[in-house]
Amino acid sequence: MDFDTIAAISTPMGEGAISIVRLSGDDAIKIGGKIFKGVAGKDLETVQSHTIHYGHIIDPDTDQTVEEVMVSVMKGPKTFTREDVIEINCHGGLVSVNRVLQLALRQGARLAEPGEFTKRAFLNGRIDLSQAEAVMDLIRAKTDRAMNVALGQMEGRLSKLIKRLRQEILEVVAHVEVNIDYPEYDDVEEMTHRMLDEKARMIRQELQKLLQTSQQGKILREGLSTAIIGRPNVGKSSLLNSLVQENKAIVTDIPGTTRDVIEEYVNVRGVPLRLIDTAGIRETEDIVERIGVERSRQVLKEADLILLVLNSADSLTKEDEQLFKAVEGMDVIVIINKTDLPQKVNMDRVRELAKEHKMVTTSLLEDKGIDTLEESIASMFFEGSLEAGDMTYVSNSRHIALISQALHSIEEVLSGIEFGTPIDIIQIDLTRTWELLGEIIGDTVQESLLNQLFSQFCLGK
Ligand code: GDP
Ligand code: ZN
């Protein structure tokens, strides 16, 4: 394909000692050559591909040295974009890396749009859409586990499975097509409802399996939304602080919700938690008291995990009982705090209220019990079954939506078969399934969707 040469700073702004200016396109090496002066007097345009060169970036207008650099020269198609690529490794700060970029732009490169390098890799056939999205996930990966999921996807695991399913569907569609177009050919076996039924069931099962993994995938990517609830003064803020202190808080670029809440991301033994400090926690107010039982139920409904804190140095109150009722049927860990003080709480009643929920005793003041709590959280969500690498995870909400739709069409196929609908009608839903799965790997995707997807990338990727 024919593209102009793009350039961008491809390392995070203000992070790390080395910054890289990346150029991609037909003129990448020529433009690089105009601003680079190698110590050995080498010309970038004549050096071998995939070599790295030491020298200086010179402003061709003033002959002034701008930066000391290492330049990698990579000729297409064996590059990320399949185009000619050069990477200028600068060690100066932001100011000098910016000057290098400006020089490249002045020599004819165009500033890359967000995600444009990855978009080119896709358009030039280097990667498929789900792999491109995996790159995006990788950039945003919040924890090691999330990183492994993204990597697994990058290897094309999901793509492979989707391609296999599409192939199966295509074979059936082709078979039906032949039957419709050439009814007089009796050597083409008639695609019976029974045969179709068998295939459609197999595809349905695979899609259902994929969707089952999606819940875990979503958790890994966005963090388990975790609400800390309890009466005033039981130790909610103390719990939030211990979890944040013990586990390196995860820096996130996910925009906060519009709700009046504070969120902290922490990584607890590989489980990313989005701790939700419900409105009022900071003011030692109580969520039930402040916004009422009905409204707090609404907030709680959105949580994946509830940490319900009790004060064991106090008797249970009506509010405590209300909270237990509000979280019925949810994933709850009951935290019985302040065990360092004389105990007043009726533990029999607590056990009765907690039912099947896990219970952990803590003294947040003395730093006791946090380990056990963390273990409970991790075992609740991993139970050893979520070892990264041996499953296909679907962690992307667009993929999840497409797989659900594909599952819906294949169910239409199955009910069509059940009611004896003519095969050429059933085939419409079958083709639809094929198209929907194709959108995951970018096969039938429209241009507008592409632009929307790639503009989500960080600049320079
Ligand atoms: P919140 O209103 O539920 O957020 O409770 P805070 O975390 O603000 O704690 C209320 C008070 O209880 C503070 O003075 C804490 O220092 C204290 N506190 C928290 N946890 C413990 C504990 O385990 N033992 C004791 N003795 N005091 C605690
Ligand atoms: Zn508090």
Task: Give the structure's gist in a few sentences.
By secondary structure, this protein is an alpha/beta fold. The protein contains 15 helices and 13 strands. Helix 9 (287-301) packs parallel to helix 10 (318-326).
Q: Which features characterize this protein?
A:
461 residues, alpha/beta, Gyrase A, domain 2, Four Helix Bundle (Hemerythrin (Met), subunit A), Rossmann fold, 3 domains, 7-stranded mixed sheet, 6-stranded mixed sheet, 46% helix, 17% strand, flat, binds guanosine-5'-diphosphate, binds zinc ion
CATH level 1 class label of the largest domain = Alpha Beta
Count of β-strands: 13
Rg from Cα: 29 Å
Structural class: alpha/beta
> In the CATH hierarchy, what is the superfamily of the largest domain?
P-loop containing nucleotide triphosphate hydrolases
Name the helix and strand elements from N-terminus to C-terminus, one letter apiece.
EEHEEEEHEHHHHHEHEEHEHEHEHHHH
Cofactor: K(+)
Subcellular location: Cytoplasm
Binding site for K(+): 233, 252, 254, 257
Organism: Heyndrickxia acidicola
Descriptive report:
The chain is an alpha/beta fold. It folds into 3 domains: 6-127, Gyrase A, domain 2; 146-217 and 396-441, tRNA modification GTPase MnmE domain 2 (Four Helix Bundle (Hemerythrin (Met), subunit A)); 223-382, P-loop containing nucleotide triphosphate hydrolases (Rossmann fold). Helices cover 46% and strands 17% of the residues. It is built from 15 helices and 13 strands. It has a 7-stranded mixed β-sheet, covered by helices on one side. Strands 9-10-8-11-12-13 form a 6-stranded mixed β-sheet, with helices on both faces. Helix 11 links the parallel strand 12 (332-337) and strand 13 (358-361). The two termini are 19 Å apart. Residues 248-261, 279-293 and 384-391 have low confidence and may be disordered. Bound molecules: guanosine-5'-diphosphate (GDP) and zinc ion. Zinc ion is lined by residues 236-237, 281, 284.
